[in-house]
């Protein structure tokens, strides 16, 4: 399992899953996303995005639209997506990363702290209002100093063993499932002659 930058050809896949999960697709650009990939099967497992908001001479970085496909949940996929996004933000020179989330307990595991909406940069205050109206009525603002990010050990271990949950396999169908008696049936064309 690894996490890499999204490619343009993955736009449709991203948009489909963002819509299915009810996540925010405002100002969508595939190059802002990262995707978790199973290296054995090439199956996509999760994704997330950093969104840079520019106002005058200030730029602000937001983590948003983090999602893990159902079959991959509980295996550290989301944690590694968050880690890659934080890395990417740091590489772009951001010291603080914000998130407007309705899952604050999840982000607390990585040292994100809730903050007062009034202390958000102005651009994110407007964004918080929009997000509460559109996709996440319970969204709360959180912030993380990039240098303070911590990955809990359990997520690292789970990520190493991550595999899709295939669910229960269905039994193989046989002739009886179609009302055919296998002892009496012939499998050649019968013309009745």
From TrEMBL:
Disordered, as annotated region: 160-193
Organism: Halorientalis persicus
A Pfam family this chain is assigned to: Acetyltransf_1
InterPro entries in the cross-refs: Acyl_CoA_acyltransferase, GNAT_dom
Domain N-acetyltransferase: 1-147
PROSITE patterns: GNAT (PS51186)
Name used for this protein in its record: N-acetylglutamate synthase, GNAT family
Molecular functions per Gene Ontology: acyltransferase activity, transferring groups other than amino-acyl groups
Acidic residues composition bias: residue spans: 165-184
């Amino acid at each position: 399992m690894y996490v890499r930058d999204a490619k343009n050809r993955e736009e449709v896949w991203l948009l489909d899953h963002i819509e299915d999960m009810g996540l925010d697709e405002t100002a969508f650009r595939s190059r802002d996303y990262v995707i978790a990939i199973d290296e054995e099967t090439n199956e996509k497992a999760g994704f997330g995005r950093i969104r840079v908001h520019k106002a005058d001479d200030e730029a602000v970085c937001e983590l948003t639209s983090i999602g893990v496909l159902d079959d991959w949940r509980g295996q550290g996929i989301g944690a590694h997506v968050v880690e890659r996004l934080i890395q990417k933000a740091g590489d772009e020179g951001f010291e603080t990363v914000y998130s407007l989330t309705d899952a604050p307990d999840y982000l607390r595991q990585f040292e994100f702290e809730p903050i007062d909406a009034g202390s958000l940069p102005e651009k994110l205050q407007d964004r918080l209002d929009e997000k509460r109206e559109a996709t996440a009525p319970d969204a709360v603002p959180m912030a993380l100093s990039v240098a303070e990010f911590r990955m809990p050990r359990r997520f690292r271990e789970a990520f190493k063993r991550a595999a899709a949950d295939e669910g229960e396999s269905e039994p193989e169908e046989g002739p009886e499932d179609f009302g055919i008696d296998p002892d009496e049936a012939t499998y050649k064309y019968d013309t009745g002659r």
